[in-house]
Amino acid sequence: MPKANDIGSYRLTGQAKQRLRLFIAMLSRWRRITNLISEKDFNRVWERHIEDSISLLHLCPYSRRWLDIGSGAGFPGIVIGIILTELDGQIHCVESDGRKCAFLREVARELQIPVKVHNLLAENLSPHLTGAVDVVTARAFASVTRILHICDPYLSTGAVAVLPRGKAATWEAEKLDATRYTVEINDNPIHKDGALICIRERLKDT
After folding, report:
1. Which of 6, 82, 142, 204 has the fewest Cβ atoms within 10 angstroms?
2. pLDDT of residue 116
C-alpha cells in the first residue's frame, strides 16, 4: 500500500495520515467491484492522486467550505475532506454515478469526515443544495468554460475556482473574458507538467 507522507510544505497530522491510509485501503477493496480506478493508477495512487489533491490546499489554505464537481473515486473531494476534518470545514462532492456515490458515502461514514455527497448531474447543482462555498474545484471533469458555466452562481457570490490542469491546457483559461474574470496560473508544486488555475469573477461596479 502507498505510504502517507508530507506534501511539500504541507504538514499532515497523524490523524490525517491514518485516514488517508484507510481511504486507500477502502479504495483497494471497492475497485474490485466498481470501476473506480485502474490498476495502473492505483499502483501510483499516492503520487498521482493524493498528492495532486492536496496541492489544491496550498492555494486556499484558509478556505473551509469547498465544492468538488465530478468527484469520481474521491479525488480531490475525499482527500480535501480528510484535511478539513480537523479544521471544522466541509466539502460537497457532486457525482452522477450512483455506484461511485455509494463509495463516497461509505468512506465519509467510515472515516467520519465532513463530506456531503450529492448524486446528481453537475448541471442540476445549485447553492440551494449546498449553501455558499469558498472554493469550487473539478479534476479531470470538463473544459474550463463548462465548469465556469456550472459554477457561475458560486463565483458570482465570491467563490474562487481552483482547477488542476496540464500546462498545455492553460490556453483555455488565458482566453477567458478578461473584463469578467481574473485568471491566475500557478505551477503545480507536485507535478512539473501541471498547473493550478485560479479563476475569480471581477467585482462589478456599483
Report:
1. 204
2. 98
